[in-house]
Design brief:
The chain has 331 residues and is mainly alpha-helical. 56% of the residues lie in helices and 7% in strands.
Length: 331
């Protein structure tokens, strides 16, 4: 089977609905058709300010949420990035064949450094895409499931892999981006023209998967709409209602037109209540399952041990090939 590799950062206390619908749900389905490697990228998480205790808790919580969402450790390789040291080792080698100019052109660094100020931006944030390239190349991934905003990083990965192969001989599989066109695009409940994002959205604009039901209900009832009352999909004229229709459709499997027909003679109040019921119907069992996994430390430790061993076996083999190719002496 073709191999896929993808990761998620443990930078918050809960995944949000955009994370699930935009990425994690696709990861679950890819277990069926691919040799799937998924990691919680805690090395990436320390490129910005953080608290160590928060990082440990959120890393475990991320693993628990991925399992609750449907990842099965017996059918995929689920692991924590820092537990496989070859990630950082390969990143150094790849940084030595990366031009300063091409690293400077990465738009995510520009965006994040502008927000926080260039003087406060870390070297780790600057080299983040190189570590990401190492993450992918280390596992000889054929495909990388990512959002459109990560396409530039995948192109850098491809460039670096091809550059290494040209200079040192065929070593890496050159991956391609696996961008699912039908993925639901979920936007901020308060700013429906903007993507739902922990870094950009207000707390009221994000549907947290581990929120209490009462909080979720309040957020959806308070979602920004327009002055009309017709429940119709029109992203330019009715972005708020269109976002709620997208959420409803993504979680129920009903088409947008089917949902619209149900609310022909109803207003926004009825529609929002039903959207909230649909979302709560999904997040309540998700939260319960996550809590169960978090309460069983021995099972979490088993999952991480098995995942690190499976990932480490592949990573060690790739890194040794790299070290031989660049001229390092074997220990």
């Amino acid at each position: 089977m073709p191999r896929v590799l993808s990761g998620i950062q443990p930078t918050h206390d809960s995944f949000h609905l955009g994370n699930y619908l935009g990425a994690v749900r696709q990861w679950v389905s890819l277990q069926e058709s691919h040799d799937a490697f998924y990691c919680v990228v805690d090395l990436h998480a320390i490129t910005v300010d953080y608290e160590p205790a928060d990082l440990r808790r959120r890393t475990l919580l991320s693993v628990a949420q991925l399992v609750a969402a449907g990842l099965e450790p017996d059918r995929c390789t689920l692991f924590v990035q820092s537990q496989v040291p070859e990630h950082a080792q390969l990143a150094w080698v790849m940084s030595c064949i990366t031009g300063f100019g091409e690293a400077s052109r990465m738009t995510q660094f520009k965006d994040k450094s502008q927000k926080g100020g260039l003087d406060r931006a870390t070297v780790g944030l600057f080299t983040y895409p190189i570590l990401q390239a190492a993450d992918i190349l280390l596992y000889q991934a054929d495909e990388v499931p990512v959002g459109e905003d990560q396409r530039q990083h995948i192109e850098l990965t491809r460039d670096l892999g091809q550059r290494f192969n040209t200079r040192f001989g065929e070593t890496f599989t050159i991956p391609k981006a696996h961008i699912v066109k039908s993925t639901a695009k979920i936007t901020d409940l308060q700013e429906p023209t903007a993507k739902m994002s922990k870094s950009a959205s207000s707390a009221a604009g994000i549907i947290e998967l581990l929120d209490e039901s009462s909080v979720t209900l309040k957020k959806i009832k308070s979602a920004v709409t327009d002055t009309g009352r017709e429940v119709q999909f029109n992203e330019s004229e009715k972005p708020g209602i269109s976002n709620l229709l997208t959420i409803y459709s993504a979680l129920t499997g009903e088409t947008i037109s089917q949902i619209e027909s149900k609310y022909v003679d109803k207003g926004y109040g009825d529609f929002k209540k039903d959207v909230a019921d649909v979302v709560i119907g999904f997040v309540e069992p998700f939260k319960k399952r996550t809590d169960e996994i978090m309460s069983d430390k021995s099972e979490l430790e088993r999952i991480l041990k098995v995942g690190a061993e499976k990932a480490g076996h592949v990573a060690q083999e790739t890194l040794q090939r790299v070290y031989d190719a660049v001229g390092f002496i074997r220990r």
